[in-house]
Design a protein that fits this description.
Length: about 350
């Protein structure tokens, strides 16, 4: 197994202390705050996380507060970050900490790894940053840096290569300053050792230690054998607007099934395929909904990890029957724009249509 060069430790940490970005979670050693930031940063850019991090910790400043919070609140606080299973698992982790660890996040890698939603990277990040434990924290950025520095040709999407690189880094993690070293690797991958031709090798502190730079293979490494085929789904989104006697408007939303994509979140009613206005009118009549006016809205697209939604939309002014309308059964609600904004989490997949509320 190729080794990660021990000379990199001082070079990286010195560079990090000068050039690191000013991020709010770097101003704390509170393990709860660090755990929240690490979960938020999974598959999300640091700049996008900043306002969510501040808002989340203001509303739920402790592990106990998160453990006891209503699900609708945590989903609302997370609204727009996506990948909502992360915050559900974060709450389960908080509940586990309260139940099994006396309300204190454990200063132990294996104990951290036992928490719901916490993988090896997150456990390593919290252990090293919050508690200065000498364990590696290997995320996608670190895999890219290490594969290039060591000239590793393995597919970094495989567990065996991830563990191999983690094992190569582990011996050089310092016993003092482990958190800074791990963050320096992450920071280098996020700002300098970028994917493909975007890499800024001329400003890299590891330039002289890097096998990929020396061999002219920066654009070849790391190896990623992506096998998943993207699925495209056509949807018609319906913004159903009901006028109240006082002249105000209410909108129909419904709760998605607890399992599956965007599980348990609220959405605008939608139908499969791209429908015409006439198709929409017929579908609403079949649900007992009277349609006064239908206005086409712009097409929109939302990209998930392996699925792309291709959407068309309609703003529909409707009248609902007086007793138990079918459209409001099975998780359907009639809410005001203010109520929707304050209490119900509509995922960003529907952002293109939410702006018409």
């Amino acid at each position: 197994m190729k080794a990660f060069p021990s000379e990199a430790v001082a070079l990286l940490t010195d560079w990090y202390h000068i050039y690191r970005r000013d991020l709010p979670w770097r101003h704390t050693r509170d393990p709860y705050g660090i755990l929240v930031s690490e979960i938020m940063l999974q598959q999300t850019r640091a700049e996008a996380v900043k306002p969510y991090y501040a808002r989340f910790l203001t509303a739920l400043p402790t592990v106990a507060a998160l453990a006891d919070a209503p699900e609708d609140l945590i989903l609302k606080l997370w609204e727009g970050l996506g990948y909502y299973s992360r915050v559900r698992n974060l709450q389960k982790a908080a509940q586990t900490v309260v139940r099994d660890f006396g309300g204190a996040i454990p200063a132990d890698f294996d104990a951290l790894l036992s928490l719901p939603g916490v993988g090896r990277y997150t456990a390593g990040a919290v252990a090293s940053i919050a508690f200065d434990l000498p364990v590696p924290a290997v995320d996608g950025n670190v895999l890219r840096v290490a594969a290039r520095v060591m000239g590793d040709n393995g597919d970094i999407l495989t567990d065996s290569v991830k563990r191999r690189i983690e094992s190569a880094i582990a011996p050089v993690v310092p016993s003092v300053g482990a958190g800074d070293f791990n963050q320096s690797l992450i920071e280098l991958g996020a700002t300098v050792c970028l994917p493909g031709a975007s890499a800024k090798c001329a400003t890299c502190p590891l330039q002289l230690l890097c096998a990929a730079n020396r061999e002219g293979r920066v654009e070849e490494l790391p190896v990623r054998m992506i096998k998943t085929k993207r699925k495209f789904v056509d949807l018609t989104v319906l913004l159903l607007r009901v006028k109240a006697p006082d002249g105000s408007f209410r909108y129909v939303i419904r709760r998605r099934p607890d399992s599956g994509l965007l599980g348990g979140l609220y959405e605008f009613p939608n139908l499969p395929d791209h429908l015409t206005a006439e198709d929409v009118s017929a579908a609403l009549r079949s649900l007992g909904v009277s349609l006064q006016k239908v206005t086409p809205l712009p097409a929109a697209k939302h990209i998930f990890t392996h699925i792309t939604w291709q959407m068309v939309g309609y703003l529909c002014d409707v009248t609902l029957p007086d007793d138990d309308p079918e459209i409001l059964q099975d998780g359907g609600l009639l809410v005001s724009a203010e109520d929707m904004a304050g209490n119900y989490s509509i995922p960003s997949a529907f952002a293109a249509y939410k702006k018409y509320v």
